[in-house]
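cache lookup: miss for this entity combination. No prior model stored, computing from scratch. Input as submitted by user K.M.:
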Amino acid sequence: MSKFFSRDYDVQITAAAQTFRKTIELDKSVKAITHYTILSNREDLAYYRGSFKLDINKDEIAPDGYSVKKVMCWPTIPPDARLKSIGRRETGNGQIQFEYTDSNDGLTTFQPYVITLSVEGERED
Amino acid sequence: MSRARLIIKEFTIRRQGEIHFFQVRLPKNATHIIGIETDALMITPLDVSPPPLGDGRPEDPMPPAAAPANRTPFLKWNDKSNPVIGKLKLQSLDRHNIFFETWVPFVHFSAAMPDMSYGLFPKSPHTLILPTGPRTVGIPCNNTVVYGMYSDSIGEERKMEIRYKVKVFVWVQTTEADKGVRYGFETKRKLEVKL
Amino acid sequence: MNTELALAMIKGRMRDMRYGTKDYTTTFKHCVLQGAERREIEAYNELYFLEHDPEDVSIRSDFGFFDLSFPRVNELKYEHQGVIQLQNLSASVSHVRFIQVILKQQAKQQ
């Protein structure tokens, strides 16, 4: 019987218009990833400036350039859709590769902020 | 089951009223186009408040008969508007000719919050609450290319050169094995009416 | 674009859209636009192919755009459909020649 797994991983965004990569090693007990979303302490910056790439076990879930606003959530999103469902992706080698690209835009000015990749899944123990 | 893949096409609009033709390359193993999403990244600073209506004096006590309706908010919380930035059309080279056509909006952050500036329950002309997730298309594709045409309208409307990047997200169904990956919009249940 | 290339393109294009050579007719359409004239052609269920490069004329349609004097476009299209708007940009008479592809009734029923 699998148990619920949920974890947040932070990426510090320290410079404007750059790509930040993070490779996450999941616990051995984590068997599958089912949902993900992107959170931030400056949601407006993440919304306007962010794009990302997400690989789970070398399988491309979201390609480079996908907008962060497409996976963020706000009040009008139905509660059961606040985390993006990706079915049930087995973790295999247990690696999640996350790339976040900040790009300059005309509506916001850059300040250092934190991007959080939040994943949910199944674990066994 | 087969796997859905996301293809991203990005291009930059630089000038007022620009028309941009482009091609989206699909992978060879794509069998269907299942959905389209759009997004934009504003490079030019965008005036957040909408352009003044009519002669720019919304408090005009006696508007002329032909003037647009006076939409002066009585409870002004924010005046954010979600401008429409242009029109996107996609054409397949197969028999499904022009299969997708939409006005691309630029949706501000938290613009989907209820807009109370027009009273409690009126229709606000500015709130543009969009359904999340891709718009379903569902056509087979035999070619590996989709033609696209984008024409700018926000620059035309505001009479200035507005630079922005348009992103077109094309979800395709491929012949790969899905290995458990099923995106949320694929499994979303349609509303059924049982009689 | 010249006539031979247009005809060859029409053949390929109609084949891609699953129409055989018997399913459509091609005719020639030569529009004479007076100075600064604006004209609309309704071409639903039809395709119009430009047969030459008309100067001083702006052509806009559902999925096409052709205007040699318009600087803010990255490509020009010779294939037009839907509502085609012709605008003569000069004060003198301009000519636009199209090859018009009309579908036959039987083709629609298949």
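stored under new cache key. Confidence is low (pLDDT under 50) at residues 49-61 of chain B.
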